[in-house]
Amino acid sequence: MNKVIPISIWSGGMINCFLIKGTKKHILVDTGVPNSEKKILKQLKKHNVDKNEIGLIIITHSHIDHFGSAYKLKQILKAPILAHQLDVESYITGKADISTMKLNKPQWWIFKQIIKNQKTEPFEPEILIEGDTEYNLKEWGVNGKVIHTPGHTPGSLSIVLENEEVIIMDMMASGILLGGIIFHKRVKHPPFHDNLTELKKSFDKILLEKGKRYYLGHGGPLDRAQVIKYYDNHLKKADNTA
Ligand SMILES: [Zn+2]
Ligand SMILES: [Zn+2]
Question: What architecture (CATH level 2) is domain 4-235?
Answer without folding.
Answer: 4-Layer Sandwich (3.60)
